[in-house]
Amino acid sequence: MTTVAATAVEGRTASSRGSIEEIAGRMERLPMCGYLWRLIILISLGGFFELYDLFFTGYIAPGMTQSGLLSTTTANFFGFQGIGAFVAVTFIGLFIGTFFLGFIPDKLGRRFVFTWALVIYTIATVIMAFQTSTEWLLAWRLFAGIGLGVEAITIDAYITELVPRRMRGRAFALNQTIMFLAQPTVALMAWWLVPQSPLGFDGWRWVICIAAFGAVIVWFVRRAVPESPFWLSQKGRTAEADNILSTIEVRVERQIGTKLEVATPMFIPRSSTTAALPDLGRTPYLTIVLTLVVFNLCQAFGYYGFSSWAPTLLIEKGITITKSLQYSFVIAFAAPLAPLVAISYADKVERKWIIVTMAFVIACAGYGFAEFVQPVAIVACGLAITFANTTLSFAYHAYQTEVFPARIRAQAAGIVYSASRVGAMFSGFAVAFVLRNSGVSGVFAAITTAMMIVMLVISIFGPKTREQVAA
């Protein structure tokens, strides 16, 4: 390097190493190594309890019904004595957390919210487990949902910003693998505990408490995760961004045994560095927002219409509660397996086409689940639905955060993701109502329609994102 070039590099380094262009260039040249994967794992541990909480809704439903707190179906569409109400308040809380509080991670930082949202969830969940009235059970479920809502969008923004784009798909696949280990875990806990009352305490209450105890442990473990350099840089805290990324670089260099190559600043469009919330109503973001709102409404109905109701749907097909939980436990094993397999292709295929393909699989397998009567065929279709659902999940969690700039990423992703909470909320009432009037076949006819809409809007209006920089 010439003296003039060297001087230019040194001058640039001294004055602007924490600028968004420098941060992007430095992040993008990081190699895949154990340290970055460790950060993804630590972030994902919090997500494990998010999904544990969402999934235990379906698995403990038979236990809550037996205890007399809730009923399986309701005479009216909005019946607040049924399982549908429990599902609904969960997603009302999640909606509040994602839509109304999505600005908090963009304002206070990913790490702060990431840490304290879990505390809110844990306290509310422990109190909920001891409730003996339907009203207070639903109230504390609402508070727990709010904590989870803020946590969910923070995790997605965090991962998008802590890894280079060439490994973002694999990072989300690993994240979802760890998170979806919650499904067989809660299925096993429910299969074991729900039919019993250990120490005179209802089994379904034990299933809830286990989530809170585990979350406390994770809270201490993941305090080692640093703040997002992208977020700090966008907030003008360039010195802090530089310091944190320098620490990451030192750790990476220590692992790979060599110095990193000199980073080249990346061009970042002005629309990304100056983006504000009102920009979501204008080009180029308006079409993306509308597409993702419709997508989230429909995918949530299809996803939670099955996952939150699987044991109950099996019981409606004439299968006993014990066998229903046993089959659900077997089906749940496909949940973490799907994103684990996806690690092999996550960064080779556009996320939008993964979403479209998996929606098609869900529609086809759902028909079989509704119509087949042989246990082997039912379980096979359930496995296919779960496999496709969790593959779709890793793809869209990456997709709906990488399309927005870091400056408004959490809030923008929270707004579009909140539509999934609305869809999931109404799925509780809708499934209960359709199940009462049209049976299991009617439920899956509705799910198929939702998946067809997903296929259409994403294939036609969804942008390509694999090469999107996280700035």
From TrEMBL:
Keywords: Membrane, Transmembrane, Transmembrane helix, Transport. GO terms for molecular function: transmembrane transporter activity. It is found in: Membrane. Residues 39-466 form the Major facilitator superfamily (MFS) profile domain. Coiled coil: none annotated. SUPFAM superfamilies: MFS general substrate transporter. Its main location: membrane. The chain crosses the membrane at residues 35-60, 80-101, 113-132, 138-159, 171-192, 204-221, 285-306, 326-346, 353-370, 376-399, 411-435, 441-461. Gene3D superfamilies: MFS general substrate transporter like domains. It is a multi-pass membrane protein. Pfam families: Sugar_tr (PF00083). One of its GO terms (cellular component) is membrane. The keyword Membrane applies. InterPro entries: MFS_dom, MFS_sugar_transport-like, MFS_trans_sf, Sugar_transporter_CS. It comes from the Bacteria. Belongs to the major facilitator superfamily. Sugar transporter (TC 2.A.1.1) family. This is MFS transporter.
